[in-house]
């Protein structure tokens, strides 16, 4: 009886260990993805601010009407 319960316990602990390892790996990957997304968003925001600043300081360009060709 003790051998059966001991084997069952070892099997359960082994299965739990595998599940725990997979969970930790998944959490680590999600953390890395979240970090990359946050870095990308920060860079996008910084570039947007620089573009808007550059556009605000540049003189306004007047566009000329396009010439049309008569046929």
Question: Could you walk me through the main structural features you see in this protein, from its secondary elements to its overall organization?
Answer:
- The structure is a single chain.
- With 71 residues, this protein is mainly alpha-helical.
- The longest helix is centred in the middle third of the chain and has 56 residues, at 2-57.
- It contains 1 helix and no strands.
- It has one domain.
Key terms:
mainly alpha; 71 residues; single chain
* Radius of gyration (Å): 31 Å
Average pLDDT confidence is 90
Share of β-strand residues: under 5%
The number of distinct β-strands equals: 0
Please write the string of helix (H) and strand (E) elements: H
Number of helices: 1
Query: What count of domains describes the coordinates?
Result: 1
Share of residues in helices: over 70%
| Coarse morphology | rod-shaped
- Sequence stretches where pLDDT stays below 50 over 5 or more residues: none
CA-CA gap between termini: 101 Å
Structural class: mainly alpha
Q: Mind describing the biggest β-sheet?
A: none
